[in-house]
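Weekly modeling sync, notes
Attendees: AB, CL, MP (scribe)

Item 1: holo prediction request
CL wants a bound-state model with uridine-5'-diphosphate before deciding which constructs to order. AB pointed out that an apo prediction alone won't tell us much about the pocket. Agreed to run with the ligand included and paste results into these notes for async review.

Input as submitted:
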Amino acid sequence: MNLSIVIPLLNEEASLEELFSRINHVCQSNDLTYEIWFVDDGSTDLSWNIIENLKVQYPQIRAIKFSRNYGKSQALHAAFERANGEVVITMDADLQDFPEEIPELYQMIVEDNYDIVSGWKKKRFDNVMTKNVPSKLFNAAARKVSGVYLHDFNCGLKAYKKQVVKSIDVYGDMHRYIPVLAANAGFRRITEKEVQHQARPYGSSKFGTERFIRGFLDLVTLWFVSRFGGRPMHFFGAVGTLMFIVGFLSALWLGISKLIDVSKGIYGHLITNNPWFYIALTMMIMGTLLFVAGFLGEMIIRTNREHKNYNIDEII
Ligand code: UDP
Ligand code: MG
């Protein structure tokens, strides 16, 4: 099978039929064999009924229904696990993305041998203040932190080699950063393609402006996990040890200068009157805590035997 098309959806009853018929048409006229994975992420409207009806006529439809709303990342993950196509394409269900882009995305993966082709909504049709401007900042930060040079991380329309979606673990709200997850897993042939975009014809957006705050926190997590996730001691241990040593040397110095004073017969200077005493104390305590945090991190990694540290390209 050439293609698995993965479509997460939450209350998108109005667009599903048109979406399916456009996908079906474009795939058939380009001789692409395909399956569609609809993932109903806890819709409360008629979305699931519409999918069931379509399924009766079109066996190339597969669908998963979540018992409640788990989120877009979980929806993608559930379909990624089950996808059979050689190329996996994700798209939103709201018709903001154009199914007509599918053949070209497919070509780029198969012929130009890219691991990921990410859509770039160069000309965007969303609200300027609540989406376009914050999203520019957000993408700039993501580029800087991840070293993956895409203009539009969060575009719903993306194409992947099958192996990519099988190797990454999309959890939490990480659907925004799939290219970064993939790059961290060793898939480096990532590019983007300008895609068409239109305003939402039906329904309303499922994400508010809180997406940017969450997005930034996830970015920090991602950066941190990719750098130190496999070896927490290198961060916590190093910072902790350093703090402890500075604290300990300060305390030592306080003690020695006290002894010198005493040997000279000066008794008035109490160590506890010196601000350095408190600084030294705090640094020793915090240093120890950080060290212990790093140590516990290492222990957790050691216990978690399922932890997959590497993807192998080839063994000869
Ligand atoms: N979606 C989902 N689960 C959610 C939120 C959204 O499956 O919890 C789907 C939604 O139905 C749509 C896609 O994810 O197909 C993108 O959502 P939306 O269009 O609301 O995002 P935006 O285009 O505003 O970024
Ligand atoms: Mg949308």
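Recorded for review: The pocket of magnesium ion (ligand 2) is lined by residues 92, 94, 96, 200, 205 (CB under 6 Å).
Action items: CL to compare against the apo run; MP to circulate these notes.
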